[in-house]
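Project standup — Tuesday

K.O.: blocked on the structure for the chain from last sprint. Re-posting the sequence here as requested.
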Amino acid sequence: MELVSPGIGLIFWMTLAFGILLFILGKFVWPPIMRALHDREQAIELALHEADKARKEMEELKFSNEQLLREAKEERDGMLRDARKVRENIIESARIKANEEANRIIESATERIHFEKMAAMTELKNQIANLSIEIAEKVLGQELSNPEKDKAIVQKSIGDITLN
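H.V.: unblocked you, prediction finished:
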């Protein structure tokens, strides 16, 4: 049972060895370990701080991107409005030109119809004049003393004449 009741010399040497071990550990090992733990703690704090900073920057960038996207949409809408206005102006301009052209064609056709009508009336007058001259020649060529005969000749001539 020697293990259960250690001797005083064993306790002394064990205590002395433990004290020397504590001294060596306290002098040479714990300061670098504590320094490493402290450095690690600072590195973790710095990383957390940088992560917070990066998160804030990402939020700002997200807000900035949303604002840029909103501005781009507004610009696109403005461009579409301008394009619609230009399209409407072009359509209106084409409509006005088409109406002007149609009016010009109608006026030209009206003038042509008027000239054709005038030409037809002139030709009709010429034909009537020619027919009158022919009737007059025939009447003069016949006996001028008999009025009934003259009327019969005029009626016959009028019946013989066909208008074109």
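K.O.: great, moving the ticket to review. The radius of gyration is 63 Å. The chain has one domain: 13-160.
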